[in-house]
Amino acid sequence: MIDKAGDPLVTDRTGLNAHLVVERPAFRLDLTVEVADGEVVALLGPNGAGKTTALRALAGLTGLTGGGILLGGRDLTRVPVERRAIGMVFQDYLLFPHMSALDNVAFGPRCQGASKAQARRTARAWLDRVGLGEHADAPPGRLSGGQAQRVALARALAVEPRLLLLDEPLAALDAHTRLTVRAELRRHLAEFAGATVIVTHDPLDAMVLADRLVVIEAGSVVQSGTAAEVARRPRTDYVARLVGLNLYRGEASGHAVQVGDIVFNVSEHLAGPVFVAFPPTAVSLFRSRPDGTPRNLWEARIDGIERHGDNARVHLDGPIPASADITQAALAELDLQPGRRIWASVKATETHAYPA
Ligand SMILES: Nc1ncnc2c1ncn2[C@@H]1O[C@H](COP(=O)(O)OP(=O)(O)OP(=O)(O)O)[C@@H](O)[C@H]1O
């Protein structure tokens, strides 16, 4: 079978099915990304995890050293960038500075063989859709950050791609613009029929824009699922910090979990290797050792304090690293200072344990 683009249709699969292997001297990316038509998947991960490399490999800008890419059943692995039916939005938008917004958007359809008039009609329709019809003649230099982002999105969508790739699409915007543009982008993504992959550092962008998260660390997928699934059962320190939880590996025996020298009482009944997670708000701090059970209790050293409005996050080191959220009033009352020793405890009902 041959599809419209003249390439062999190798399967009847829909959406994106990719196994990306990119080997470099000091880095190896090896991950599988599956995205259904109409689905938005966010690739999240720390610096250097391989997010951009994965996106560039999907686009054909970085060659694969193994694996392959199917898009709508077509094998794209050896198809050159310009024939991939892919739309891309980069962090800094990469608009052509000497062309008007309209010509920037018309560029893709033109490259696909549309007549000049037809390409401009398509571009105008897209600029109207993103609310920029009135700025069609403006060069990128006369657009605000939010407007340039919308032109970049219109340009990516004007080629009617089957796959949309967004690399930190909101990173260049100030906080206020980001809020509105994020909401608009979500609306456009909901209307887009193809598969979308978005790379972001920002958990909020990921949660608002994506149906599913794929967390990458050191070139591999460490966790994937909906934001709620990932947040509920983080499997690495990075994910735990992302969702604001304290996370430890331990050994469970019934309701007790041994984490180093500390025993946590947990509500779950488990055996063998487990994770124990609890939010910083579940940690209580005391100047002297509180009476009662020695479980869920440890002596720590204050490593640092961050103040946020009425609250403070206290970073603890000692037998286990942990964060505690307390009120500014409690901070003053306990006279907490970096370097000071303190007792920390956490309620069993606020810990959550699950198999590792
Ligand atoms: N062109 C290149 N040549 C060689 N190594 C590269 C190249 N680009 C990236 N790398 C390396 O590949 C690894 C993955 O980089 P990549 O940019 O994909 O990570 P990332 O997750 O997008 O990070 P960031 O969030 O910092 O953008 C890093 O170790 C990086 O130093």
Task: Characterise this structure.
With about 350 residues, this protein is α+β, with helices and mostly antiparallel strands. It has two domains: about 15-235, P-loop containing nucleotide triphosphate hydrolases (Rossmann fold), CATH 3.40.50.300; about 245-355, Beta Barrel (OB fold (Dihydrolipoamide Acetyltransferase, E2P)), CATH 2.40.50.100. Helices cover about 25% and strands about 35% of the residues. The protein starts with 15 loop residues before the first strand and ends with a strand. The mean pLDDT is about 90. Bound molecules: adenosine-5'-triphosphate. Adenosine-5'-triphosphate binds near residues 27, 45, 50, 53 and 201.
Task: Using brief descriptors, characterize the structure shown.
alpha+beta; 36% strand; 18 strands; OB fold (Dihydrolipoamide Acetyltransferase, E2P); 25% helix; Rossmann fold; 9 helices; 2 domains; binds adenosine-5'-triphosphate; 5-stranded antiparallel beta sheet; 356 residues; 6-stranded mixed beta sheet
List the SSEs and their pairings.
Blueprint: E1 16-24, E2 27-35, E3 40-44, H1 51-59, E4 66-71, E5 74-75, E6 86-89, H2 101-111, H3 116-129, H4 145-157, E7 163-167, H5 175-191, E8 195-200, H6 203-209, E9 212-217, E10 220-225, H7 227-232, H8 237-242, E11 246-259, E12 262-278, E13 283-286, E14 297-308, E15 311-317, E16 322-327, H9 328-334, E17 341-346, E18 352-355
Parallel strand pairs: 3-8, 3-9, 6-7, 7-8
Antiparallel strand pairs: 1-2, 1-4, 4-5, 9-10, 11-12, 12-18, 13-17, 14-15, 14-17, 15-16
This protein binds adenosine-5'-triphosphate.
Keywords: ATP-binding, Molybdenum, Nucleotide-binding, Transport
Domain Mop: 291-355
Enzyme class: translocase
